[in-house]
Amino acid sequence: MPPKARARTGIVGVGETEYRTRHQENYVELAQRAAMNALRMAGMTPDDVDAVVYSMAPTEFMGVSDADKWAATAVGARHKPMMRVHTGGATGGSAAVIGHHHVASNLHDVVLVVGADKVSETPDAQFVLGLIWDPFYERGFGLNTVTQGALEAVRHMDMYGTTEEQMAEVAVRTWRRAKRNPNAHLSGDITVDDVINSQRLAWPLKRYDCCPRSSGAAAVVIASERVVHERGLDAAWINGTGAAGNTVYIGDRLGPNKQTDFGELDELRIAIEKAYREAGISDPVSQIDVAEAYSPFTIYEIQNVEALGFCGRGEGGPDIAAGRFDVGGEVVLNPSGGTLCSNPIAVTGLVRVCDAALQILGRAEEYQVPDVRTAVATAIGGSAQFEACLVLGSDPV
Amino acid sequence: MSSKVSEHGELLTIPEDWHLHYDYGAGPVASRFLLGLAERRFEGRRCPSCDNVWVPPRAYCERCFVPTTEWVAVGPEGVIEAATVVTLRLGDREPPYVVAFCRLDGASTCLVNYLKMPLDDPEAAQRQLARGTRVKAVFASSPESRMSAFHYELAE
Predict the structure, then answer these.
(1) pTM for this predicted structure
(2) Chain A contact for B89 (CB, 8 A cutoff)
(3) CATH code of the domain containing A253
(4) Would you call A161 an interface residue with chain B, using a CB distance cutoff of 8 Å?
């Protein structure tokens, strides 16, 4: 089916906070700071916003049920349409896709997508993450995001021979890139041995294979082509979006009758392929300059580069270890340090979109990659069951 | 509970704990499956359209979107599809322990549970958990109508 006619949209404002264990502000003040930062970049005020999409994952992390209610007026939604998007870890990516839909549909000209999280205000985050499984069959048997990531890694290693050392290379390279991003929660010079010798969580994942629990906020302002031109704004054009959902049951995605394999993020492939089709991406390595990939665990970075078509299935580990996706490489992967170095869950997918947009807009400062014309952002949530992808460009397609 | 001043000086944190209780309605399909576990029996649901045997059983085949129509006995042996040795405390359970997705004989899909085995050497244990390794479900001496009625062990 050919894509339906849609209005062109662009990201004209980006707002981020630093990602840390704690902030001085309370939750809504944090969300407000990101919203105001994004509006300031766009040269706008809340009066210019037609609708708000609120990016909020499980609220038990920060402990106020459905915290979008608390945040509504703090982010400028007074007397405006507002909706919350929640697809687990994919939330921020999904919220950006929905914000794009609001404008691409010609129903709104300016949409603010914003959210915040304070994951470190509870020590019980893994307990909350374990509540996504149903109470009859799967809950209570050790499933949480860490064991889920471990099982994905086990599967990938089993199918393709991916090694602990290759995953360690992901951490080393990601932490190094994060040094240029002052907002990154973790950064620094670590070695493969540091990763291999760090505390073991669930085989094969070790401490440095895993993201931190972060607090922070993020926002983008999405505007119609008309507003971009009337106001003379710089835009990171949203040239393609895709999303896919699937069953929560990991066990349905294993075995000979699977449709997608739990070890391969095949659902992400579906979302990426749709976004690529819309954006006219047929040769990702040559057409894409930067990828902000959702990788809370090192294995996800390997799965992402495969799903993004930067290499073949099973080649992600060796190719990352060979430096193909370092700064100066064929595609620069997570120049911000990505999710492995900062994970404010409710907005992590939106941070990917923010950092991809900043690269297009030439405003990523210390971590700017030269001459970025096309960037891609991904997000993954639930039991790796919800996925979102956005392709951004310096020119509209 | 009283508030406390954080390391930032004049900034307060307010502590709170939640306690919630639920009585989850399992529905007819999960109820029969779980009651079956108390009788040391595994059953899946077959889809009349794609022939998949869904374990854990579902009332609908979520691929064909038709009602499943037939109960099918599965297990009690099967194979590992993915398993991990957990060595850090991530919840209430004392590590080390193994989380395993196993496909019971006759089932199309996998059921998660703990797999009990010697874990003195976690890495050596992990090497015994390759995809396709045979396992058996072992029931508790007085199994209840819930998934904790059984665990997996490596088959002889």
Answers:
(1) 0.96
(2) no
(3) 3.40.47.10
(4) no
